[in-house]
Amino acid sequence: xxxxxxxxxxxxxxVPDTPLVTAAVAFxxxxxxxxxxxxxMRSFLFGFCIAxxxxxxxxxxxxxxxxSAILHDQGWAGKTAxxxxxxxxxxxxxxxxxxxxxxxxxxxxxxxxxQLVWDAIALHTTVSICLYKEVEVAACHIGIGADFxxxxxxxxxxxxxxxxxxxxxxxxxxxxxxxxxxxxxxCRDKPETxxxxxMASYGERYVEGYSLEGKMLIDGMPYTREVLDTRST
Length: 233
Description:
By secondary structure, the protein is mainly alpha-helical. It has helices at 19-31, 34-51, 62-70, 90-105, 111-122, 127-130, 135-149, 160-169, 175-189, 199-206, 221-228; strands spanning 7-10, 13-16. The chain has a two-stranded antiparallel ribbon. α2 crosses α7, α3 crosses α5 and α5 (111-122) runs parallel beside α7 (135-149). It is globular.
């Protein structure tokens, strides 16, 4: 848990350099496309760059932050990956994969550290929650968000020079198009995991035949009102 870990410089950013972080990079590289792998590495680097300038994030568990960022999109692995399910959101597939990775590679990690990583990954797309959890969870999201929003939305904590150095090391490879295709594939292949979250907007805009009709929480309220609420107590 200590922040006193070995470090190295990658794309101008000081990051943890431990066997576990190295193993996480290898695990991500094994299962992700070039586009997705470069994204998680940029998210890792952006997060550490920004956090180094934010006192509110200075107390975080550096290794937990690193593992969370590097493994946050394992849910984007191909269908043949053993940890990809037909029933869970990609964030949960990724969080579960990261937890099993840690149980295998870091048996000394306690339940709290495992939960930090699980939460950081499972909640990384739920901005209205993750920013108010532990600093490791928030820091993971902030780095990921920087890959979507760029330096102009970093409150001055990420410069264009730093951004460009990182994307030189890990090119973007038509990132926006790649993300759109991945999210649309979830809407096509396991739509039940998309109806209650941001992925639904991709389905409605881009996926033929996708529909939220009858799938939203509000669609169940007539039953709640007319059947459940009329039962005698």
